[in-house]
Amino acid sequence: MKKTLTILEKEEWKNYVRNSLQHDFYHTWYYHSLDNTGLPLLFVYEEGENYIAFPLIQRAIAATTYGDLTSVYGYTGPISNQRFESLGHAFLQRFRESFLAFLKEGQFVSVFSRLHPFFDQHLSIEAMGGIHANGKTIAIDLRISLEEQRQKYHKRLREKIRQLKRKGYTLREGNSLEDISTFAAIYTENMKRIGASDYYLFTPSYFSDLHHSDEFNSKLLLIEIEGKAVCGAFIVCTNDIIQAHLLGTLTAYLPDSPAKLLTDEITIIGREMGAKYFHLGGGLNFKQDSLFEWKAGFSDLILDFSSWRYIADPVVYDSLLEELPLDKSSDIDFFPLYRYQVPAH
Prior knowledge:
Helix content is 33%, strand content 29%. It is an alpha+beta fold.
């Protein structure tokens, strides 16, 4: 049986995520409720007690009767109450047939979803094709001792963290509305400095709701010096995985790089929260850039990150491409390509 939940069916969405064997913060109803790029939906295929649930964002394709599906920013993909390998070939085949029927009924031209580097999601969809290698992400293994973990840090990084402590930088957990407002100001200044779009700028209520959601364990952490908060992060722990969902540093304190001390401290708190991994993520646009190298200073645990890029209706997909002034021989890494914004000359 298949069904599609919208964001209005809050409790049912939350139950499918809560009862899954493996999920992350990015699958939650709360995180999808924040998306304003389209209509969040949860496709569900179930037989008896077993199910596969796939969170997606539905978008219309302008000037057509067609639409497409994408994922929220982060690591999503399908989830299940069983390991995908345990569901069996026949169940997975029926899931795929059901999902393809859903795509046809909805006149969806394509599907894009980032996949989670820790989960075996590819087993549910690889038979349809379209799995694309996107690059690497980095995680810190919290199952080993703290001493062993720190021995994996680059030597200069270890010294930098000691230096920050000597200078008087300390960690404090924030809980009050004032703390949330302080972090919101740090984060907003950070985003404006790097020229982020309005999509990454949030209202104070966003941070407050994040702090109090019942779908995951979240904490606000602040790095202070002389009583002033200069760096901070909202961390979220879902199942065994912890990540810094939002992180920022005041411009004036960037030369000291207090985020390095913050990252080290999060690994301690992550252990207390029961996490097995601190997922740092990858570089900008998943390139192995300076941000990737910054993260690689903390760990040698490097994971493969993939996305699913599926063309459900090749005829319509190609016709949409015909309308774009694209050099068909150019190798543009963008999906779906018909949504690519051709740079103005």
